[in-house]
Recover the amino acids of this structure.
């Protein structure tokens, strides 16, 4: 399948690129520099230096491709990008796999694809865009990743210690995060693409939901782990980001397993951080 991929030089997108190539798909990626284009080519993809806000370019690549996978989701990009792709794919069998996020569902101990949408300020912009994507006549799936980790990157690296300086929790650390390894997530994108059905949301979570304190203690490597007040977390991280990280979220990812045949195999977040989050 000829796939138009966005975000191929980013954290999630680079893993999706590797997975798509491994599964035999031909990938064309739009990147912003010659250096990033070279990295895409080294990974087995084709690269075009351009901008995702160029709707003529996006429209052309969508028409030339069998599918689109959008991992470069951003408030400044998504409105026009998603409108252009869904229009190009309207009433066709071509799948469009869009990226959402777990924060969309707010506080919940049992997040599923049917959970109500209750996003924090940080990601409230996603809701109207995702609603239009789901209501379009294109064949769409929105992958909503949990907290992504692995390969030495992702939000959880904020808790990696050096054995000396303190590691600060977000709040008291009692909230749980629902998680997914970046390479397991990439496999789910490929499965969603190959499934090619109108599926609404699919929650990308392995069922591992550690507390923030458990995460920090795994990553501290001897550094003291220190709780802080909500007010202090908001001052340190910014109110919007802190409020998102203070959400208590748990999910099983059951739909992804049952409907897509997804089988996560990578170490848990706590195991990954305890091992130093090695780059495979």
């Amino acid at each position: 399948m000829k796939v138009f991929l966005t975000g191929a030089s980013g954290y999630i997108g680079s893993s999706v690129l590797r997975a798509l190539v491994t599964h035999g798909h031909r990938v064309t990626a739009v990147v912003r520099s010659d250096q990033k284009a070279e990295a895409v080519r080294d990974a087995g993809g084709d690269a075009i230096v351009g901008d995702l806000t160029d709707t003529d370019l996006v429209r052309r690549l969508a028409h030339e491709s069998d599918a689109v996978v959008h991992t470069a989701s951003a408030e400044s990009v998504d409105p026009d990008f998603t409108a252009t792709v869904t229009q190009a794919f309207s009433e066709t069998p071509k799948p469009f796999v869009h990226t959402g996020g777990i924060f969309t569902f707010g506080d919940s101990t049992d997040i599923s694809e049917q959970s109500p949408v209750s996003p924090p300020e940080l990601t409230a912009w996603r809701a109207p865009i995702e609603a239009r994507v789901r209501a379009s006549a294109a064949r769409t799936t929105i992958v909503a990743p949990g907290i992504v980790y692995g390969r030495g990157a992702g939000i959880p690296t904020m808790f990696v210690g050096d054995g000396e300086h303190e590691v600060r929790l977000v709040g008291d650390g009692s909230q749980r995060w629902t998680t997914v390894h970046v390479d397991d997530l990439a496999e789910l994108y490929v499965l969603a693409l190959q499934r090619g059905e109108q599926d609404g949301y699919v929650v990308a979570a392995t069922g591992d939901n550690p507390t923030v304190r458990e995460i920090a203690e795994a990553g501290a490597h001897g550094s003291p782990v220190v709780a802080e007040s909500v007010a202090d977390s908001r001052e340190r991280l910014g109110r919007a980001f802190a409020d998102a990280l203070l959400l208590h979220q748990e999910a099983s990812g059951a739909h992804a397993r049952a409907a897509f045949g997804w089988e996560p195999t990578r170490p848990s977040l706590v195991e990954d951080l305890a091992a130093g989050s090695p780059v495979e």
The CA atoms of residues 171 and 230 lie 5 Å apart. The two ends are 26 Å apart (CA to CA). The chain has a mean pLDDT of 97.
